[in-house]
Prior knowledge:
Structural class: mainly alpha
Shape: globular
Number of domains: 1
Strand content: under 5%
Largest sheet: none
Amino acid sequence: MNTLSAKNRSAYWDNIKGILIFLVVFAHILSQLQDRFETINATVDYIYMFHMPAFIFISGFFGKSERSHSFESIIKLIFLYFIFNSIMGFIYGFTSLLQPMYSCWYLVALIVWRITTHHIAKFKKINLILFVTALFIGFYPDIDNTFAAARIIGFYPYYMIGYQLSEEKSVALINKKYIRRAADGILFLMGAGGIAFTAYQYFRYTDDALLMIGYQQPIEVFGRIVLYLTAFLTIYALRCLSPDRKIPLVTMFGRNSLWIFILHRPFTLMLSDYICDLSLPIIFLLSVPSSLGLCILLGNDVIAKYMNLFLQAGTDIFLSDKKKVNYPSSKVNGLPASSSS
């Protein structure tokens, strides 16, 4: 197969996103309980080493289209941020009007990446520039979650590398015999796991370190380098392991990952409060089906249909007819990992 159909491409990438969004929900249920059990703390930290980097990489891959950085697309992101960040702020209280609430930082980051990437990608050695910048901003703790600045800069290399991945190279990997690339994926995943385990024992990553907030000790710059290595190995492993056919529920979760991502946080916070006093085995036993249930509840096609209508209606308020562009149907639907919206 020389070209990749929209259907197959959607299933392939949506499978990766489906696994990732499940891990997002699962980690967020457990994240409020990290202080109670070291096992929970380690589980959340290991997930945080790669789940958002992988989402960002995929967002970059689908950020090449004109649609992704169109005026309408940016307005959609701004609309989503204003509505859902405000809701979270009113429910839980704003820490600062300049700091995004919970997962809403990613919407701010996408706005910046989508506006800037197609311009700065033209510079030679842009990857080196972004990596060096991402490492050095860690020495300046004043660059924090204000306007998601630390995360925008720290995670930018993942977006750029995804942006630079050509569809031809993506197709070439997908078209490899699945048994062969799955074997490669397992090897890369084992390698990433070994590096992650070793680095975790040595650097003892804090939540701030995993979220690209400033270093507490200068040696943490080396810990960030290892995080990049671990995440890129895992991303490649996921690309090798993902089949290019639909998987029940998983593909749907990936297709509708935007709405799971946007809507899940209040539910995970409530669940965390509910299970916080339980024993460790029971917490894990309840967290897995709860994560699956939330993904089904918030990521089914019915919810997605009405939320997409809500998003389009909200966006149309700010668009004149001249600025409305009829783009071809997106090959992969949903955010935070595609070019749509």
